[in-house]
Write a structure and sequence with these properties.
Strand content: over 45%
Number of helices: 0
Number of strands: 11
């Protein structure tokens, strides 16, 4: 049983900033990797930023230089610091975690949160 809960979304003006959080809770050994996705109406869900199992970070070209992703391993929590926000950043932002159920397990699975709305408008 794993639950991912996103928070921090809301309405901001263009050029503003916002920080999203995603907390993983439940019965599991570790979050191998975590990532932020977003989906705007009528568009396909896209990868925004991720922290890999090795601790590396990757960003979509559209957000690179404006967004910063980080992970607190002790808290199994993922963050997304968003700055210089643009109207095209408006979307529902989803958190994904790659779950290792138990120590030594070779099995892993993906878990998704319910999403948090980010609206950038004046």
């Amino acid at each position: 049983q794993v639950q991912l809960v996103e928070s921090g979304g809301g309405l901001v003006q263009p050029g503003g900033s916002l920080r999203l959080s995603c907390a993983a809770s439940g019965n599991f050994f570790a979050t191998k990797a975590m990532a932020w996705y977003r989906q705007a109406p009528g568009k396909e869900r896209e990868l925004v930023a991720e922290v890999t199992s090795s601790g590396s970070t990757n960003y979509a070209d559209s957000v690179k230089g404006r967004f910063t992703v980080s992970k607190d391993n002790a808290k199994n929590t993922l963050y997304l610091q968003m700055s210089s926000l643009k109207p095209e950043d408006t979307a529902v932002y989803y958190c994904k975690a790659v779950i290792t159920p138990a120590k030594g397990s070779w099995f892993e699975y993906d878990s998704w949160g319910q999403g948090t709305q980010v609206t950038v408008s004046s």
